[in-house]
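The records we work with from here on pair a chain with its fold. Each token is a code from a learned vocabulary of local backbone shapes. A record is reproduced here so that you can trace the correspondence yourselves:

_____
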Amino acid sequence: MINRRLFGHRLAATVLIASVTIASMPARPAYALFGFGGVGGIVFDPTNYAQNVLQAARALQQIDNQITGLQNQAQMLINQARNLASLPYSSLQQLQSSIQRTQALLAQAQNIAYNVRAIDQMFQTKYANVSMSAPDAQLIADARARWQNTVGGLQDAMRVQATVVGNLDSDRTQMTALVGASQTATGALQATQAGNQLLALQSQQLSDLTALVAANGRARALQSSEEEAAAAQGREQRRRFLTPGSGYQPGNAQMFYGGN
């Protein structure tokens, strides 16, 4: 393309110089230019020839400009096609799988689910107040239930922690692939899509972090609630033990039995 353009420019310059040279020549008879004599010789007009050459050079220059314009338009269309090309890589499925694994663990919360109504009901019956009239067997059963809730909450928190740690390797793989796709993007759309997927990866990591904080907070809340309920129950059991008539009753004890 460049050689053809240079050739056209050189040709136009050569023709222009030749035309100017011919135009500057003094007008002489035709027989003096071509060696013909007499009236019937060929007639040559240098001025008309020079004008024709200039018109041809201008026409050639216009054609060259048109070719250059078409080439620019073609390059512009190529660039637009690159900018509209979609990113061939997608991490959406992997990110959704990671979020679904974490959500599944949260949905498997033991004893007390992540539900406001269920939490209120459980705390009202097991944690809020220790019944003053409940028998000792009921107090022991409630204490065991609270202990099981605490142990279940700690186990749930550890399971969420293990899942979040397991997602780190997948997140690293996705981040490497997305950064590579962003750096090799051929157009604006591919670069934007790669950036959006990186933001989606960050959102997934924030979701894992939120789930981890929630699971740990739940475990700590259950542990603290159990301690408070155990303290209240201990006070009630001590009161019952020290109440006259229904507490400890002294009696005789025989330590050794007589043999035959």
